[in-house]
Amino acid sequence: MDVASLIGFLLGVGIIVAAISTSSDIMLFVDLPSILIVIGGTFGTSLMRIPITDFFRSFHVVAKAFFNKKENPLDLIEDAVRLSNIARKNGLLALEDEEISNAFLKKGINLCVDGHDPVFVRKMLAQEINQMIARNEVGQYMWKGVADLAPAMGMIGTLIGLVQMLANMSDPSSIGPAMAVALLTTLYGAMIANCFALPIVDKLSTVLLYERTNMELILETINSIQEGMNPKILEALLMSYISDKDRKKDGE
User: Fold this and answer.
1) What gap in Å lies between CA 121 and CA 126, rounded to an integer?
2) Where is average pLDDT lowest: 2-6, 198-202, 234-238?
């Protein structure tokens, strides 16, 4: 689990709720019609933007913001050098029974062991990377749309509430409560966009960068093993995928 995402979300929403509860009854900020307008309108309109399969898949993608396993690239490099040493000394078939924790690396090694052509292996793994990027970008597009639509739906709900309020101006005592309810939809829209959707898009972008870098590192590993590259040269090549700061940490 990504602790930073969970703590950030709970802290952001918690501070807002705490501020409300210290000055007034929190139930004043709960209005079912306003919730339906903002949430129903936002996700209903989102269905017009993308196919329904991508719409539901985006909820699976968003889980990566809270449940993502960041694999240390230094661990992958260590595995790559170990596997390269084995393949160089004993041949590719010797890798068949090696324990490999990363599923993508395991798939690439299995393709090597099965004797597939290096061009085919590279093409197949590159296609899997592209598909992963495409799935994540669709998810980001969906939640970026939610961030754009939620405040707009909040404004629409506010306008609906104002129309209803102005239609009942004969009762001055109802104007204040009606105005408060009308403004709640704007509040809901702003909270959905700024406390959830936009942070989710940014976190997904960061997670995608980590995943893409690690997968490209693995692709380079598989290609180099098939070419019979010297393990020390392979290690130097793979180190170029990580920052100088991380390399210094490894050397400490």
Assistant:
1) 8
2) 2-6
Residue from 209, 206, 211 nearest 71 by CA: 211
Mean pLDDT rounded to a whole number for the chain: 89
Per-residue pLDDT reduced to its tens digit, 25-61: 888 888 888 999 999 999 999 999 989 999 998 988 8
Chain centroid, CA 216 distance in Å: 18
Three-class secondary structure assignment of the chain:
CCHHHHHHHHHHHHHHHHHHHHHCCHHHHCCHHHHHHHHHHHHHHHCCCCCHHHHHHHHHHHHHHCCCCCCCHHHHHHHHHHHHHHHHHHCHHHHCCCCCCCHHHHHHHHHHHCCCCHHHHHHHHHHHHHHHHHHHHHHHHHHHHHHHHHHHHHHHHHHHHHHHHHCCCCCHHHHHHHHHHHHHHHHHHHHHHHHHHHHHHHHHHHHHHHHHHHHHHHHHHHHHHHHCCCHHHHHHHHHCCCCHHHHHHHHC
CA dihedral 61, 65, 68, 72 (to 10 degrees): 120
Tens of pLDDT along 175-233? 777 787 788 999 999 999 999 999 999 999 999 999 999 999 999 999 999 999 999 99
